Amino acid sequence: MVALRALGDADLAEDVAQEALSRGIAAAEAGRLTADDNVGAYLHGIARHVIADIRRAQGRESLVPSSLEPSPVPAVALRELITKEERARVRRALSRLSERDREILRLAFWDDLNSAEIASRLDEPPARIRKRKSRAVERLREAFKAGSHTPDVGRD
User: Fold this and answer.
1) How far apart, in whole angstroms, are the C-alpha atoms of residue 72 and residue 46?
2) What is the C-alpha separation between 12 and 4, in angstroms, rounded?
């Protein structure tokens, strides 16, 4: 309810709640949150920080003119930087992701669409797409790291 009142968007409020719970669980696992602590107050504080992060991000987006967005790297130059082995590792890591994660990453990095354009295509709010993209990139990073020790068998 706090996030919904602060942001006025049910989807963003849901993202705030999920992030607050995720950080709360991580804090409990790390020993920063004990049974003696007021869990509700702790989660409320986390939610306030997440809300502030969202507001800051929204403010930054409104201040950056589209002419200052980075230009895409030419595909040829990018291909030259990535070795055959790295491409295979990326493919393996991508195959470990959900179809939804792969779709968002494809639209963002291959089709070079921004969050608003992806949101329009997928009929979802831009803030949700930003969060999903962030989580998809993190899952890709984890899958890439996990796959770094597995040998490549004839995939290119």
Assistant:
1) 35
2) 8
Q: Token pair for residue 104? A: 């968002």
- Measuring CA to CA, which residue among 104, 99, 107, 96 is closest to residue 139? 96
- As assigned by CATH, the class of the 75-149 domain is mainly alpha
Distance CA 47, CA 41 (A): 10
Sequence ranges of the domains in the chain: 2-68, 75-149
Indicate whether this model's pTM tops 0.85.
no
- DSSP assignment string, 47-64: HHHHHHHHHHHHHHHHHS
Taking only the tens place, the pLDDT of each residue in 77-113 is: 555 666 777 778 888 888 888 998 999 988 988 888 8
Do residues 100 and 133 lie in contact, with contact meaning Cβ atoms separated by under 8 Å?
no
